[in-house]
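Budget justification note: compute hours in this period were largely spent on complex prediction jobs such as the one shown. Inputs:
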Amino acid sequence: MTAILAQAEGFFRDRGTGDGSCVERNGFCPSWIADNLDRYVGRPLLEHVELVVVSVTAGFAIAFALALLARRRRWLAAPIGQVTAVLYTIPSIAAFFLLLPFTGRGFLTAVIALTAYTLVILFRNIMTGLDNVPAEARDAGLGMGLTPRQLLWRVELPLAVPEIMAGLRIATTTTVGLATLAFFAGAGGLGETIYADLRFKSNVVMAGGVAVLLAVLADALLLGIQRLSTPWTRAVAR
Amino acid sequence: MTASATAHPEGPSAFPQAAALSFREATKVYDPAAEPAVDRLSLEVPAGEICVLVGPSGSGKTTAMRLVNRMIELTSGDILLDGVSVREREPAELRRHIGYAIQQIGLFPHRTVAENIATVPRLLGWPEDRIRARVEELLAIIDLDPEEMRHRYPAQLSGGQRQRVGVARAIAADPPLLLMDEPFGAIDPITRERLQNEFLRLQREIRKTVVFVTHDIDEAIKMGDRIAVLRAGGVLAQYAPPEQLLLAPADDFVADFVGADRGLKRLALERVRDVRLWHAPAVRAGAPAAAARDELERAEVGYALLVDDAGRPRGWLAPADLGGDAVPAGPGSPVLLIDRADTVRDALSRLLQEEVAYGVVVDDDGVLDGVLSIELIEDFLRAEGRRAAEAPVR
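Corresponding output:
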């Protein structure tokens, strides 16, 4: 742990030049920030985005497959839900260390842990979405001659989109936060910047702020996609 | 619904022949220890007729209907559609050729009205322009403005409009058979009556074979060409046209189910034109009164009817009014006009409401046809009863 922190510290030891006094006092220094923006929106941000996109995408694919399986074999729904919930309770730093012997340090280890955390939310929301499809729409669909597969893709999944998107939004914002710990697994990201100089206010506020901004933007983007893909949810009785 | 917009044999959707449907000892058993849901049901539905399955809850009427499109699988027996066993067809393929309308409608909330209606044509792979034309045609048939309604979502429709879209969706691909499970069940009585009438009018145009499930005997009598009354355990109690069911219930269960007022219900099925009416002397103003007096002596009605040149009744004339040389120009006492096409029940109700002994029956042009009285209606009911007693029970 100390070793990792010490190693991270090496990355930012040099705060470069600034208007001396503010930087010396570890204060919040706008002019220094302006000069050093690329420390935040450069490589660390790209790594962070990559971690989030890959983890959420992988998590969604797995949760989706699990949900389809659980709908075909109803008895599997409860155990799958429980396993994903247990995964969610493992402290993230512990998860990185547990994975070390198998995947070593780096991107893959971080992604495996982050992916595991998304499962509980995504699996539950996909299941809820599918369960909330009106029984009569299902009955009418089958009665008109849709095959079970057509029913799933043309009726059930589109109707589950609001819940599925809600799950994706929670999973994404959560993962943006969790990914700040990925540097403990040696996967970089904004966390590396934060922990590189924890005493320096400008550094912590900026790196943390970029992470928050990223979460907000990702959430807004997903909300936009949801609204575009579900015009019927806003159709109100006239 | 505009009748002119309905049947276009050369249009984008020529209506295919309706199919005959045949239940052969059709049986559904869920639990071998309990009584069957449907028990050896055998009945024939001729092509183009509405067969109503009616019965109390637990009589298996919905189950029987769902056996037809294999939403529920037969335990034993068979169901033939156009002579071919439904067991021999792929369920999804079979269902695409059978219209399906249910009480909860089950419109897809995420699809517009047009997309909902296009469901089956799309499954059948119709070309887009044919689908579009068919949707337009159906919206016109169900009396929804295509421009305004096409792009609406189900949430933006009233209950009655949703129900209509449900029916349009069921008949979109011109299926030769239509299954309807309490399709007008979940709406207010006034809208329901209108939708029933609309559907009957539509049915006269499209002549589908229809299996119609209801628990409401009045709806059954109104909608059915034939009615199958089912009792608990899915046993067929009687299968007969509505008149027959009312005149000659097969047993106490059926008599009880159709109700103690079945005489009155029968009146709702009969038209005034089916009654042998009384004759009243029709006289024109200025005609010799003596001839009218003679005719009045022999007539079944004690009054003469003053008619105009076209033969339309204008007023009643008592014998005292005919005392002079010529028939007076009126005015006479007011007449209650009854249309030949009215049901006998409506006519009776008007006679009672207006507190008059006679109603004057006229044809479409308002020309005198005959005279109806409460006494005649009584005779009519008695005569029908005698005929029923002699008729073979189906």
